[in-house]
Design brief:
The protein has a single domain, classed as 3-Layer(aba) Sandwich (Glutaredoxin). Helix content is 57%, strand content 9%. The chain is built from 10 helices and 4 strands. It is globular and about 45 Å long.
Length: 201
């Protein structure tokens, strides 16, 4: 019998997705659950709700809470966290590169590295140079990756993946979906989602 599967849906601009990205693989290995990284874009989902930016920007009290919460959670996980400037950053190109990388075997490592670049190192993830350096650091061809990210095929895949997220009822990131379609939202639901994926087996 194969291991149960859990889809990890994330947007690179999402603060809480950073925390999930840095811990999901060891937790999933411990739970014997196979994880599929699924980058998508929150922008179209927010737009459908009438928002033109992150709700953490729209609602001041919510934003204040989130930044302090991130500091506490990062400290608990012994990970560095810094507030990116600007916030949110545009993760479109990074998502496209990640999709290409997932077909080449380095997409998961790339995704984690992008989150670290933004929320740990304070780098701009909408910068071609940042993404090229990350890809090169994974011993992959940065030019080929960035060229592929501009291809019609990869653009269509990201659009389709975002549309799939909407069909599944996703409204934020990170989100996790099981093989049977159960949806879990938020970094604080990661371990529950892994347990539920096991229960479905």
């Amino acid at each position: 019998m194969s291991d149960p599967t859990l889809d990890f849906w994330f947007d690179f601009a999402s603060t809480y997705s950073y925390l999930s990205a840095v811990q999901i693989r060891p937790l999933a290995a411990e739970a014997s659950v196979k994880v599929r990284f699924r980058p998508f874009l929150l922008g179209p989902i927010f737009k459908a709700q009438g928002w033109d930016t992150s709700p953490f920007n729209l609602y001041e009290a919510k934003g204040r809470y989130m930044w302090r919460d991130m500091e506490r959670l990062a400290a608990d996980l012994s990970v560095t966290f810094r507030r990116p400037d600007p916030f949110p950053q545009n993760g479109l190109l990074a998502a496209r590169v990640a999709l290409f990388g997932l077909t080449q075997g380095w997409g998961e490592d790339f995704s984690v590295a992008v989150f670290r670049a933004q929320f740990d190192e304070g780098r701009r993830i909408d910068d071609d140079g940042t993404l090229a350096a990350i890809v090169s650091g994974l011993n992959a061809d940065a030019k080929a990756a960035l060229d592929a990210a501009q291809s019609g095929d990869v653009k269509l895949r990201l659009r389709s993946q975002t549309e799939e997220a909407q069909r599944l009822g996703l409204f934020g990131a990170p989100s996790f979906t099981t093989a049977r379609g159960d949806l879990f939202w938020g970094n604080d639901r990661l371990e529950q989602a892994l347990r539920w994926a096991r229960r479905e087996q």
